[in-house]
């Protein structure tokens, strides 16, 4: 993995922390897609990585919209929720790293559908 793509993944994660996911999809996809194509990454893999990054950002402070909604519905303090959610963050980060560095994980199923069943 090239340093530029790692930097892009960090940018997506940080943007996911401070903005809404739908807006970021519309803003970032036209910017990043030509770049990742030039780097040799499959567009399907990029889409999966982008969704995982932005989804993780939705549950991460400081803005974390899903975290706030969950805390309001569950009547739990955000500090308590953040303390208990760290193992899940770690699991998502491991899955994100595997998806990023082992393309077969994210491309096997789409390749099966592309070839026809």
Please, could you describe this protein's structure?
This protein has 117 residues and is mostly helical. The protein has one domain. The protein is 83% helix and 0% strand. It has helices at residues 3-18, 21-38, 43-58, 65-74, 78-101, 103-115. The radius of gyration is 16 Å and the shape is globular. The model has no long low-confidence stretch (mean pLDDT 85).
Q: What gross morphology would you assign?
A: globular
> Spans with pLDDT under 50 lasting ≥5 residues?
none
- The structure class reads mainly alpha
- Beta-strand portion reads under 5%
Total number of helical segments?
6
The CA-CA distance between the termini, in Å, is 32 Å
Helix-strand topology string: HHHHHH
Round the mean pLDDT to the nearest integer and report it. 85
Radius of gyration: 16 Å
Q: What is the number of beta strands?
A: 0
What is the count of structural domains?
Answer: 1
């Amino acid at each position: 993995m090239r340093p530029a793509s790692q930097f892009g993944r960090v940018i997506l994660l940080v943007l996911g922390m401070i903005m809404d996911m739908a807006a970021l999809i519309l803003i970032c996809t036209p910017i990043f897609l030509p770049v990742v194509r030039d780097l040799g990454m499959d567009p399907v893999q990029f889409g999966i990585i982008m969704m995982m990054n932005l989804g993780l950002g939705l549950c991460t402070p400081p803005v974390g919209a899903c975290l706030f909604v969950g805390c309001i519905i569950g009547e739990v303090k955000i500090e308590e929720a953040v303390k208990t959610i760290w193992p899940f963050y770690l699991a998502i980060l491991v899955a994100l790293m595997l998806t990023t560095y082992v393309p077969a994980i994210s491309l096997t199923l789409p390749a099966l559908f592309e070839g026809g069943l």
